[in-house]
Write a structure and sequence with these properties.
The protein is mainly α. The protein has a domain at 4-13 and 98-274: Hypothetical protein af1432 (Orthogonal Bundle), CATH 1.10.3210. It has helices at residues 4-10, 21-28, 35-43, 46-56, 70-95, 108-127, 131-140, 144-153, 156-165, 170-178, 182-192, 197-204, 216-231, 243-253, 260-274. α4 (46-56) crosses α5, α5 (70-95) runs parallel beside α7 (131-140) and α12 (197-204) crosses α13. The protein starts with a helix and ends in a 7-residue tail after the last helix.
């Protein structure tokens, strides 16, 4: 069977690495960063500049006069809000296509990823994990599915049998049929993009947070956000609730299952505000 790198290399339509992220993330997470450096980086990308300004001028962020330059955007909405916008804009192109190997229609993966990110970020606030880092890890958690979708599409009959007849999870089906799974591929993709190790570990272990040594709480936020998104209806394919992973997450974050409905309600309210906002062209 092909290796992780061979699967990645075989996907010709994969969007190029988001080269700005490794440079922008450290700046956007430090409140004492020089805003002019952030403006310079974003302004070099016309599409990113246009989308950032469009989002900043949306009804969601609307606060008086129109914003017509990036420096004003940084000053008006702050680093934290800009961080979420930049992450969403730079990942939306990659995640918005259809993934036929997973029976996911256009925008399905994107909608799921946004729902996970919103839920995980709300959880992060409560358990004192960096909300911006959690938002990024959550949006990227299933990026490996873009790579594996063409390979699964070729064996779709077997995928359907394994998921419907035997009740296997998507992770187990991938490993059985392809020799790798989307978490492994996603983590390797983030390595190629030179993103930080905490994000790589969270993506690799978002199904098994206890294995994300040193980054268990970050991975657990993504894991719980993923479950909340599925319970809310923002999922796809076969979702088998992994009780072991759920117990791991509860223990790592010191949260009980009774708190999940609260996050569902809060996430629904938040998604009402951001769903249209983050369907970016």
């Amino acid at each position: 069977m092909p290796t992780v790198d061979e699967y990645i290399s075989a996907v010709h339509h994969l969007v190029p690495a988001p080269v700005l992220l490794p440079q922008l993330l450290p700046l956007l997470t430090r409140p004492d960063s020089d805003s002019s450096k952030i403006v310079d980086l974003i302004s070099n990308n016309q599409s990113l500049t246009a989308n950032v300004l469009r989002v900043c001028n949306s009804a969601y962020y609307g606060c008086g006069s129109q914003i017509d330059n990036l420096q004003q955007a940084v000053t008006r909405i702050g680093f934290h809000q800009l961080y979420d916008i930049v992450i969403s804009v730079t990942t939306s192109i990659s995640l918005s296509g259809s993934q036929t190997g997973y029976c996911v229609e256009e925008n399905g993966l994107w909608e799921h990823s946004i729902a996970v990110a919103v839920a995980a970020q709300l959880i992060a606030h409560d358990v004192q994990v960096d909300p911006q880092v959690v938002f990024t890890a959550a949006i990227l958690h299933d990026v490996g599915k873009i790579v594996l979708s063409p390979a699964l599409d070729k064996v779709l009959d077997k995928v359907v049998y394994e998921t419907d007849k035997s009740g296997s999870s998507s992770l187990g089906v991938e490993t059985k049929l392809l020799g790798v799974n989307h978490a492994e591929v996603g983590a390797r993709l983030l390595e190629r993009w030179k993103l930080p190790q905490n994000l790589i570990s969270a993506v690799l272990h978002h199904h098994r947070p206890s294995e994300a040594k040193g980054h268990e709480r970050l991975a657990a936020c993504v894991n719980l956000g993923d479950a909340v998104a599925y319970f809310m209806g923002y999922g796809y394919g076969n979702f088998s609730l992994d009780l072991k992973a759920s117990r791991e997450t509860s223990e790592i974050l010191y949260l009980s299952s009774e708190q999940v409905p609260h996050y569902m309600t809060a996430s629904f309210e938040k998604l009402k505000q951001v769903k249209d906002l983050y369907h970016l062209k």
